[in-house]
Recover the amino acids of this structure.
């Protein structure tokens, strides 16, 4: 490796971000101070200040090579959207142009919103949508083959102020938890912290396959997952990929990804191979929720973009290969004050940490009451293949506490107070050269959807291609509600110590049913959860109604996170999205089966039939093997043809239905079973037909030969 290929991370980190140090260096002191006040106190930015900021931002961006700017936003499509405007003004009399960017252009953009999902919030003739600068997430310059663009993170709203994006409710929910958490810590005598912010660290899983092979798979191109494919002789049973050493081609890719991300101020930290062959993971250092959500979008974009340069294709789908582990996104979540106190830090002796116990039991209550909403927040079409499929957490929400906290909880429930905390044991390695060390007080549980991991919760249900915005909107709001209800009682209590003691015991007792420390993959848990009355929503379609139940509407309206109209619109959008995605998958299957698979199988049977005749003519050999194969293949071909006809019929019926729940249910029940019925004979055929005649690379080619 030449010297130039090494990079100095400290030097490049954040070099394309209009971050605090750039602002401090470039903005007049007064403007810098004002902007900070706006960021910290959430006040409105005046136009005069905005003009100065915009001008400096533009100058800085032009130095980085930027010719355009864009309001970068996150509509309800799951990916980011942008519309580029160049900095040029109308040509002057001398034919030259000026480069300009005003405060108004920085703060507010207007965008034809009619092509983004709005779920009836905005008729297409009222196409106006507004993007508004989220000044708490820094602007950045994105450089790539298409040039350089100044990207301004924004929220996206309709003309009448309804949220059309992921960002707006997220910011509203951060406000809600800030307010309620401050109330709570004030009760415990904290007078110094000014702000409480949810911190989020999303771990991103993904697959890498060879791009040439990818291009031969229409299913991957159109749907992001394989719709056909027989299992290779080797799967992931040897566990030799997980944390295995990273091959050079992949390592070179990861290095490039990291450099790109570091320049954008994304603190890419951990990378490793994941459980399945060709599967990997990237985790950044945690950040305030809105920044973490933006950064996760940048991570997904960068993973895809850089792959192309290495002749690779990055698959972010939750289940690119049936029968092989899928990909998720663990959403690590905690709440921290501006002066660095993590409210989820139990300390060494949690039983004495009354504030922590209240926070913890409030969270148990929130998760128990709103388990349906959390489940819904992790629902997307791809994730239906993962949740409950013995690899990802089950579709049932439960909380894992670990031995130490479970013990404290048990003490609280049985005696009303906790008197001791279990501590970590000494881990004896049995190797003299390695010193013994203290183990954590609790082990991990990989099967739990919502696990306490030392000083944070890890929500492990989220899908790999989904935005982490919605899970965090839900977490922030349900915990804000639990805090608010606790504060309502405690603020009017005469004897605070007594009241808080009683409240912790009450919450622990009433919501103990949500705690489960056992094997979440087991059949016994499904039965036990049913006995406990916990919801088990197996598919996205089952989960969607949770969004606008009277309970959800009351919750979100109370904290100004969503109006009922916004929730109703999201319900509509999700049904529509579900139907559209399954429709595309079904149509892709029909296309591939009709134009690629059936013709290939016919070619093979023709060749086989000819060869049987030729062998017969040449000699009197036994051709029963060939004949058997020909019969078997022909039988499967007939089954394929029949299943194809059924899928065509079901898809046509579904597509004609009125958009909404009924249509989504039809796609889920009728269309997906017709898809499975078509896949079965095709996968059997793949195992019989001459590999050189099969029209696409196999699972083995895709995941073992990267
Ligand atoms: P794991 O062993 O589960 O991979 P890590 O410590 O590597 O745990 O953390 C995984 C993710 O959780 C990272 O993005 C990390 O920055 C984030 N994380 C760590 N501490 C916190 C916290 N207090 N709040 C939110 N996220 C956190
Ligand atoms: Mg983890």
């Amino acid at each position: 490796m030449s010297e130039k290929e090494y990079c100095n991370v400290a030097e490049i980190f954040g070099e394309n971000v209009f971050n605090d140090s750039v602002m401090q260096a470039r903005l007049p002191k007064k403007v810098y101070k004002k902007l900070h006040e706006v960021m910290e106190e959430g006040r409105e930015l005046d136009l005069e200040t905005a003009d100065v900021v915009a001008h400096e931002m533009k100058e800085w961006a032009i130095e980085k090579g930027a010719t355009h700017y864009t309001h970068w936003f996150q509509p309800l499509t799951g990916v980011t959207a942008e519309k580029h405007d160049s900095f040029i003004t109308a040509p002057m009399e001398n034919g030259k142009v000026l480069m300009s960017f005003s405060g108004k252009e920085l703060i507010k953009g207007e965008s034809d919103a009619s092509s983004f999902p709005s779920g009836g919030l905005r008729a297409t003739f009222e196409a106006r949508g507004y993007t508004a600068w989220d000044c708490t997430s820094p602007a950045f310059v994105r450089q790539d083959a298409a040039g350089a663009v100044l990207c301004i993170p924004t929220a996206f709203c309709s003309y009448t102020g309804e949220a059309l994006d992921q960002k707006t409710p997220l910011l509203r929910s951060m406000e809600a938890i800030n307010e309620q958490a401050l109330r709570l810590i004030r009760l415990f005598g904290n007078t110094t912290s000014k702000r409480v912010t949810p911190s989020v660290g999303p771990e991103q899983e993904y697959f890498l396959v060879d791009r040439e092979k990818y291009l031969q798979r229409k299913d991957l191109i159109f749907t992001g997952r394989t719709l056909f494919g027989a299992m290779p002789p080797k799967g992931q049973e040897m566990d030799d990929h997980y944390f295995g050493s990273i091959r050079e081609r992949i390592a070179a890719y990861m290095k490039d990804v990291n450099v790109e991300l570091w320049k954008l101020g994304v603190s890419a930290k951990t990378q490793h191979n994941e459980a399945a062959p060709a599967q990997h993971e990237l985790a950044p250092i945690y950040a305030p929720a809105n920044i973490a959500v933006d950064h996760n979008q940048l991570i997904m974009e960068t993973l895809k973009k850089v792959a192309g340069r290495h002749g690779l294709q990055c698959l972010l789908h939750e289940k690119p290969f049936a029968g092989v582990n899928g990909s998720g996104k663990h959403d690590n979540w905690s709440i921290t004050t501006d002066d660095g106190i993590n409210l989820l830090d139990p300390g060494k002796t949690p039983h004495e940490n009354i504030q922590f116990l209240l926070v913890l039991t409030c969270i148990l209550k929130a998760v128990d009451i709103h388990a349906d909403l959390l489940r819904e927040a992790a629902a997307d079409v791809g994730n239906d293949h993962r949740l409950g499929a013995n690899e990802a957490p089950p579709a049932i929400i439960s909380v894992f506490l670990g031995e130490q906290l479970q013990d404290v909880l048990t003490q609280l429930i049985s005696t009303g107070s906790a008197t001791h905390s279990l501590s970590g044991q000494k881990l004896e390695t049995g190797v003299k050269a390695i010193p013994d060390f203290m183990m954590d007080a609790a082990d991990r549980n990989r099967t739990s959807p919502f696990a306490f991991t030392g000083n944070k919760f890890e929500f492990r249900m989220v899908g790999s291609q989904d935005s982490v915005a919605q899970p965090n909107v839900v977490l922030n709001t349900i915990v804000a509600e639990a805090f608010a209800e606790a504060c309502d009682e405690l603020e009017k209590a005469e004897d605070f110590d007594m009241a808080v003691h009683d409240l912790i015991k009450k919450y622990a007792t009433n919501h103990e049913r949500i705690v489960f420390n056992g094997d979440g993959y087991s059949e016994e848990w499904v039965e036990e959860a049913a006995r406990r009355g916990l919801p088990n929503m197996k598919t996205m379609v089952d989960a969607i109604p949770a969004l606008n139940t009277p309970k959800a509407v009351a919750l979100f309206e109370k904290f100004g996170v969503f109006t009922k109209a916004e929730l109703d619109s999201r319900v509509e959008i999700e049904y529509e999205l579900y139907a559209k995605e399954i429709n595309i998958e079904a149509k892709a299957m029909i296309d591939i089966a009709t134009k690629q698979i059936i013709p290939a199988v016919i070619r093979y049977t023709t060749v086989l039939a000819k060869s049987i005749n030729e062998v017969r003519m040449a000699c009197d050999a036994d051709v029963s093997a060939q004949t058997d194969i020909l019969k078997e293949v022909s039988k499967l071909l007939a089954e394929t043809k029949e299943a194809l006809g059924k899928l065509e019929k079901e898809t046509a019926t579904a597509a004609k239905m009125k958009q909404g729940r009924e249509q989504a249910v039809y796609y889920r029940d009728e269309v997906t079973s017709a898809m499975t019925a078509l896949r079965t004979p095709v996968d059997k055929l793949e195992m019989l037909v001459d590999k050189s005649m099969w029209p696409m690379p196999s699972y083995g080619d895709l995941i073992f030969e990267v």
User: Anything to note?
Assistant: The pocket of magnesium ion (ligand 2) is lined by residues 203, 330, 458 (CB under 6 Å). The first helix runs from residue 9 to 12.
